[in-house]
Description:
The structure holds two protein chains of two kinds. By secondary structure, chain A is mainly α. Chain A has one domain. In chain A, 67% of the residues lie in helices and 0% in strands. Chain A contains four helices and no strands. Chain A has helices spanning 9-20, 26-38, 40-58, 66-77. The radius of gyration of chain A is 23 Å and the shape is elongated. Chain A starts with 8 loop residues before the first helix and ends in a 7-residue tail after the last helix. Chain B has two domains: 2-79, RNA polymerase sigma factor, region 2, helix turn helix motif (Rna Polymerase Sigma Factor, Chain: A), CATH 1.10.1740.10; 89-205, Arc Repressor Mutant, subunit A, CATH 1.10.10. Chain B contains nine helices and no strands. In chain B, helix 6 (134-145) packs across helix 9 and helix 8 (165-172) packs across helix 9. The longest helix of chain B is centred in the C-terminal third of the chain and has 24 residues, at 176-199. Classes of the chains: A mainly alpha, B mainly alpha. Chains A and B meet through helix 1, helix 3 and helix 4 of A and helix 2, helix 3, helix 6, helix 7 and helix 9 of B.
Amino acid sequence: MRGPPRASCDDVVRLLTDYQDDALPMSERLEFERHVAVCPACRGYLSQMRAVLAAARAGCGPGLTPADEAALLAAFRTPEPDAR
Amino acid sequence: MEALRDRDEAAFADLMRRYTAPMTSVAMLYVRNHAVAEEVVQDAWLSVVRSVDRFEGRSSLRTWIFTILANCARKRAAREGRCVPFSSLPGGEPLEPSAEPDPFTPADHPRWSRIWTTPNDAWDALPEDRVLGRECVDVVREAIAGLPPLLREVMTLRDVAGWSAREVAEALGISDENQRVRLHRARARVRSELEGYLGAPGAGA
Lengths: 84, 205
C-alpha cells in the first residue's frame, strides 16, 4: 500500500481523469474518494466536470435528415459496386 | 455484422442512427465547415454500403466505419487545402505545458496545503435546462473546437463521440498515458471556459 497519506484538492484535480477512467491504484482511489467525501469544493469541481461532459455529449453533431437516410437505405438495398 | 452482409435494412438503419452524429463530430476534426462535414459523413456511409462485403471482421465494425470516415474526411480536407491534424502527427509529440493559473493554496501553507482558495459552485444545482441548454452546449462545442489539435481530437473522440480510452489510444497511435494526459488537459480547459461563461453575470438564459 503506497500513496500519499491524504489527498489534497490539487491531487483530486490532477487525478480526476485517471479516476474516471479507472486507472488509479486502489490506494489512491480510496484517498481520492475519502477526500471528495469531505470536501464540498471538490464535489463542486466534480459536478462542474460532469456538466462539461454532459454538454459535450449533447453537442454531438445532428443525425441524418429523413431524406438522406432514405437515400442511403436505398443505396444499401441495391448497392452499385464502386462505380462513380 | 452478418446482418449487414445479408442486407438487413433495419440493422443498417439502426447503425446510421447510432453513428451519424458522432461521425459528424469526428468529421469536424478535419473540415471546419459543418455542411461539408455532413457531406463527408454521407460519402462515408455510401462507401460503407459499397464495401460491406469486403469487411473482414479483423477490427470492430465501429473502428472499420470510422476508418472509412477518416479516409473520406482526409480526402475532402486535402481537396480543400486544409491541413489535417488527425492521425498525421507522431504520437510522441510533446504537449506544451499547461498555463492555467493555480487555484490552490501554496504547498508550504502551514495548515492548509494545496486546497482550493475559493469554493466551486455546484453546477448540478443549476437547472438542467441551463447546463444542457443550447447556450452551454454551444459554449462547450466552441471551446472544444478551439482546443489545440492534439487535445481536440482526443476530447472529441472520448467525450463527444463516446469512444473508450483504449479505442482512442489505438486510433491515434498514442499510449494510454498520453491519451489520458491529453484528455485531462482538454477537459480542464473546456471546464474553465464554461466557468467563464456561467460565471459571467447575466449570461445565458
